[in-house]
Amino acid sequence: MSEMMRNGGYPMWIILVFSAGTLLSSALFAHKPDLHRLRAIGAMGLATLMAIFGGTASALAAVCMNVAHNESLHGTAMPLVILQGLGEALANPILGFNLLAMSAFVVAFGLRRIAH
Q1: With 85 labelled, which of 8, 45, 75, 77 sits at a CA distance of 20 to 30 A?
Q2: Does the CA dihedral 50-54-55-56 come out positive or negative?
């Protein structure tokens, strides 16, 4: 996990904090369902989603800028460096989307409790 956090850069911490808040709110909703809480959970999920997109864009921009400004990469190493950078940039959506999926799953338990 620490390597993934390092690969994604500082946006990983924003994603982690936002998604932790979303997951905690989802758990509270599952424990004590109240439909009025769903708007707040949705807003937190949206903030998390925007952080995922922003973090991914930031990481992709870093890859592009670093590859473009490194003249020693003009050769056979460039595709490998780009692939490495893209793999690192995907750390943001991997973490964020998985935590959002867990939040949605937990909300489903609260919705099921309301239905019964």
Answers
A1: 45
A2: positive
Which of helix, strand or coil describes residue 50?
helix
Which percentage of the chain shows pLDDT scores above 70?
97
pTM of the model: 0.88
Under 8 Å between Cβ of 63 and 79: no
Q: How many helices (H) and strands (E) does the chain have?
A: 5, 0
The answer to whether 91 and 55 are in contact (CB under 8 A) is no
Q: Identify the pLDDT of residue 19.
A: 97
Which DSSP string do the residues of 66-104 spell out, in sequence order?
A: HHHT-GGGTTTHHHHHHHHHHHHHTHHHHHHHHHHHHHH
Provide the pLDDT confidence category of residue 87 given band limits of 50, 70 and 90: very high
Quick one: which of 102, 111, 115 has its CA closest to 30? 111
